[in-house]
Design brief:
This protein has six helices and eight strands, in the order ββαββββαααββαα. The protein is an alpha+beta fold and 164 residues long. It has a single domain, classed as Arc Repressor Mutant, subunit A (Orthogonal Bundle), CATH 1.10.10.2590. Helix 3 (77-89) runs antiparallel to helix 5 (116-129) and helix 3 (77-89) packs across helix 6 (136-163). The radius of gyration is 18 Å and the shape is globular.
Length: 164
């Protein structure tokens, strides 16, 4: 009844009660350096939910870094945010061999669908938190392009290493 347990893999599992009380990124707005401390205590490692309704977590500091990266671009800040969030939840190999949805065509049967709870939470965060009227299809397109770009980059690096 403590609200926090561990599953078989040692992952932290929060009770529904704790989840309801946990801060949610979609409801936090834009963070600043002052949001990383409370009464002089560093809270940048505080776990928060990315979007309500999903068991997808990140730290307050990670969200802050994502928002900084998005603010530094002039084109499509939400697109940068999507890519930075994908970097938090997936390593390069997983992104390169993954696809954002189970839809679509792939010549490679090894290409697996990425964790859909994470994908859906990222889409919910972008469509809820960014006041840019971002369509879910646009978010999905950016995710697919990022997987493709990561795959191409990884293939180039592998080819370069083989020629050395």
């Amino acid at each position: 009844m403590g609200g926090v347990d561990e599953d078989e893999e040692g992952e932290v599992v929060f009770s529904d009660e704790v989840l309801r009380a946990m801060p949610v990124a979609t409801e936090m707005g834009e963070l600043g350096p002052e949001d990383m401390q409370v009464n002089g205590l560093d809270i940048s490692q505080q776990q928060i939910l990315l979007a309500r309704g999903y068991r997808v977590f990140l730290t307050r500091g990670q969200l802050y870094e994502v928002q900084i990266a998005a603010r530094e671009t002039t084109k499509t800040p939400w697109s940068v945010c999507v890519r930075r969030l994908m970097d938090i939840y997936f390593d390069r190999q997983t992104l390169a061999m993954g696809k954002a949805t189970s839809h679509g065509f792939s010549n490679n049967p090894a290409r697996k669908t990425l964790n859909q709870e994470v994908i859906q939470a990222i889409k919910a965060y972008i469509t809820d938190a960014w006041n840019a009227n971002v369509a879910e299809t646009d978010v999905r397109y950016v995710m697919a392009c990022y997987c493709r770009d990561t795959r191409k980059q990884l293939m180039k690096e592998m080819a370069r290493n083989e020629t050395i």
